[in-house]
Specification:
Two copies of one chain form a homodimer. By secondary structure, the first copy, chain A, is of the alpha/beta class. Chain A has a single domain, classed as Alkaline Phosphatase, subunit A (3-Layer(aba) Sandwich), CATH 3.40.720.10. Chain A is 32% helix and 15% strand. In chain A, helix 1 packs parallel to helix 2 and helix 5 packs parallel to helix 12. The longest helix of chain A has 32 residues. The first copy, chain A, is globular. At the A-B interface, helix 3 and strand 2 of A face helix 3 and strand 2 of B. Chains A, B: One of its GO terms (molecular function) is arylsulfatase activity. Chains A, B: Belongs to the sulfatase family. Chains A, B: This is Sulfatase N-terminal domain-containing protein. Chains A, B: InterPro entries: Alkaline_phosphatase_core_sf, Sulfatase, Sulfatase_N.
Chain lengths: 560, 560
């Protein structure tokens, strides 16, 4: 039975495209039904893109902004903001000027979503399925092919600014992963509190043990690092440098300011170069400490998430002005989105559910369904609400197609991202996806197909009632059904079997690739050296530290 | 201390208006601060209303539509509807043409909200605090003064069509409570299933015991009625009649069709009379059985609530066309709203939370914060989102003010409704209310003041953490706070003390007023006679049935 199914796919795929991208198995079920319609659409879309390229002299510029931990509905819908006590007029204006996507799926946490965006693959495939924390001693493998690498081959200027969060090994640095220019934090925002001032403010992390009173029981001086690096800058082929002074409460927000400044400057440089540009700016948005430069909060809500969004919103306004003044507004696709749901579990006050249940880390819709808005004057029609399913990996394939770079997408691995050019240009109802597989770390937790969702994680033997959901009638996944939805049981079984078969054929990387942390910095500090230097003399140990770092780890709570 | 506070109010109120309406005590705290600004606004607003009256020859017409069980956000926000699988384009258009209110509070269930709307008073004051079910043998007291009585005195044609749900006693019939014309169901939609066909479909209610197999233990034939009345029609001073054939699955939806037909006809009649009209149409919206006339559902969602909204939406479109064709569109305020939150506890599939937690019966925001939209071409500015607090009782006072009928509002009782003319005409930020008291049945469950909310019901001794909420940062009332919000504790204490003092001065009616059910119908059926006839010979009883009906009842679950 499996073999039959397998060969069926192969034939369909084989007849449709020569040198095809390998998609997840589910894709071919749709292609078998809609492949001809898609081909017709593609002919029209390709003509349209060729006309635009003719008109502007280059393929479109792409500015991608992706921030943290925001529930679907929190931006882009002014009515909802009126009940939450903050306003993002510039982001909301994007809903008037373009598309407000209501069903963009991501991975459930920062590192996995960012890996999926960069590679066009579910994070589980690149091994980047868990959230990295300082010091991680691992990172995204050099063998992954980022969207920057793909667009670079088609002649794009590429830049990454902001929160990278894809590892602290040198091979995983953004400018080693295909970006011409990079200014990035290897970690998330957690190190914002790892400063002497935070230690004094009773957030005792132990990073500065000289601030403790004497602890006679504190024997092992090798167990944790004595410092951290906030930001690294580099250019393709050029040196890597730590940016800014050593971490201090006065400087954290300077990272954001600098990332924004560099975003605008990179536009100017590319316009001067007469080259198309791709910029992914991933704001730090917030810190675990309020901005010490501010006397008064910007919102009635006052929580760090709302404050961060309002600050980002001001930059979005500036960005549009800048694109206009540089004469490239019409040839630029701007996308703003969140990376996963709100930080509702042990997160800061005010990070809450909006339309969906769950948040960061969860496989319920609240964890993986994020706000996303897109504008492209004259190409994307204004004022659209799009209810179709799309996935963060689709941006990879879609950007590649828009940039004329589809041929540079690797063919030796599964690319989950499908080309959604038709959805962006033709609007509601034109998605080429009706399914998503939702992983938590390395575990497949749930499957989505259209309005139906199957929870594989909490399902219990004995008609547990936690298994099947209809997302139109039960959007919050509160009332699991069995009898009412048994008709989708084997449908999801087949969907999963196809998915597993494809993994057998194209295996996942088991984990993030290990390596020494924070090496290769030109302006290295003593604290940094301590991080990547063996803290005890390895010769005194009966085991090899390198071999230790390669041991598999169990997936645990803090990993997501 | 209480006395001091009391006299303070009296002075403020006494100096501000002669022959003032008695409001809830909290109002005077605001009036003391903003009374002068309000007076200035009122002078301008009165000029504006006088100009409009001059232009149109009458004060404005008012069409009020209030349906059941809908969460804030379910209508008026197309982005949310796109994730729920249904569309109400005509109602949504009202958000473009007028105001989308994001903070309209009601009572938590049908009967209380409808009583509050009719009387301008919290339902607890009129004794109408619990949901009436067939057969109830009680109803809204004749001494209550409805908005129809108030507007009638100012020369309005008044009509009520649809779900009345304010008792089954003759004195509580809609045309005995001030409406010139009435066509109404004395109960809610529950009797829609009390038909022989439903009994056969295994919804055994016992209303038709001849459908049971023989039950040798069924002794008491007086315990329940043997039939029910669905709809009553009448005119002021005229006879009351049961409308339509005896309840049958084929006919339930005819009630809605007829209510809509009469709504449009009443507009025609009033235009012909050259009189302003006030119509409250309260749709049945749905039944506990699908509409047997339909072969196919109207929505992808398919649940009864969504289906009902889409059907209602078509009527809203027709209504606007009709007002236009009758030449009165410009002089008509149209308000559409729900009566309380969704029926999430033991209600039909697909009735779910949207932005807020809880539903019908709950004091959390999900129970009492409903969608409301209002249009008034040329008077209400288009495209507004209003985040101010208002309460369903405010419609009473506001309608009275718009109709030049404020002087007919009774002065011998508390009128909770405040005049919100300024909010309707001037928009966001112009509410004259920043507080709400939320009752569940006769019990005060929670208080709202601005962004703060205090839960009095679940608060436990010992810092229970269930007590204080910030509705901007914790809209779903998930994370009760104590230490963080102790600053509002005594603020809420004072608010409640003022409220209780005022109740002492102007006492509530304890309950709905008792009486025989469904009397006074001209075309009485034998089943109806059985309902109001003592089922056993009263002479054989050692107690008086009338005295029995006057005994107080405990407040229980099914009451809300």
């Amino acid at each position: 039975m499996l073999f039959f199914t397998f060969f069926t796919f192969f034939t369909v795929s084989g007849t449709a495209v020569s040198d095809p991208i390998v998609h997840d198995a589910e894709h071919y079920i749709l292609e078998a039904q809609f492949g001809e319609r898609w081909q017709q659409e593609d002919r029209q879309l390709n003509r349209r893109l060729a006309e635009l390229r003719e008109k502007h002299g280059t393929p479109p510029n792409i500015v991608h902004i992706m921030w943290d931990d925001t529930a679907l509905g929190e931006v882009g819908i002014p009515a909802i903001q009126s009940v939450r006590g903050f306003k993002t007029p510039n982001i909301n204006q994007m809903a008037n000027d373009g598309i407000n996507f209501m069903r963009m799926y991501t991975e459930p946490a920062c590192t996995p979503t960012r890996a999926a965006f960069q590679t066009g693959r579910y994070a589980v495939r690149s091994g980047m399925h868990t959230v990295s924390f300082p010091v991680e001693y691992s990172g995204m493998d050099a063998g992954e092919v980022t969207i920057a690498e793909v667009l670079d081959k088609a002649g794009y200027n590429t830049a990454f600014f902001g929160k990278w969060h894809l590892g602290d090994t040198e091979f995983s640095y953004a400018h080693k992963q295909g970006y011409d220019e990079a200014f990035f934090t290897p970690y998330n925002q957690v190190p914002s509190m790892w400063i002497p001032q935070a230690e004094v403010a009773n957030v005792i992390t132990g990073l500065y043990p000289d601030l403790h009173g004497e602890d006679q029981y504190d024997l092992d001086q090798s167990h944790q690092p004595r410092g951290v690096v906030w930001t690294i800058e580099g250019t393709k082929g050029g040196p890597s440098r730590e940016w800014g002074p050593p971490p201090d409460i006065k400087n954290y927000w300077d990272i954001e300011t600098e990332a924004q400044k560099r975003t605008l400057a990179f536009i100017d440089k590319s316009v001067a170069d007469k080259k198309p540009f791709f910029i992914s700016y991933q704001p730090i948005l917030t810190a675990f400490f309020p901005d010490p430069r501010e006397k008064k909060r910007l919102t009635a809500n006052k929580n760090v998430g709302a404050e961060g969004l309002v600050k980002l919103d001001a930059f979005v306004g500036k960005l549009f002005e800048h694109l206009q003044s540089q004469g490239v507004a019409e040839n630029t696709l701007v996308i703003v989105m969140a990376d996963n749901g709100p930080f509702i579990h042990y997160g800061p006050r005010g990070m809450v559910e909006t339309l969906y249940r769950g948040g960061k880390g969860d496989f319920t819709e609240g964890g993986v369904r994020v706000p996303m808005l897109a504008t492209w004057p004259g190409v994307i029609k204004p004022g659209q609400i799009v209810g179709d399913i799309l996935h963060v990996t689709d941006l990879y394939t879609t950007f590649a197609n828009l940039g004329g770079a589809k041929k540079y997408i690797p063919r030796d691995r599964i690319i989950d991202g499908v080309d959604q050019t038709s959805l962006f240009l033709n609007g509601d109802g034109f998605s080429r996806r009706d399914y998503v597989m939702i992983y938590q770390g390395p575990n497949l937790a749930a499957g989505v197909k259209g309005r139906f969702k199957r929870d594989w994680k909490n399902a219990e033997v004995g008609l547990s009632k936690n298994e099947f959901y209809d997302l139109f009638t039960d959007p919050r996944e509160m009332h699991g059904e069995m009898i009412e939805q048994f008709h989708v049981k084997s449908m999801f079984n087949r969907q999963r079997q196809r998915h597993e078969l494809w993994i057998k054929k194209y295996p996942n990387r088991p984990d993030a690739t290990p390596g020494p942390a924070l090496t290769g910095l030109e302006n290295v500090r003593p604290e940094t050296v301590e991080i990547y230097t063996a803290p005890v003399d390895p010769k005194k140990l009966p085991f090899d530290p390198q071999e230790v770092s390669e041991q598999p780890l169990p997936f645990s709570g803090s990993d997501l």
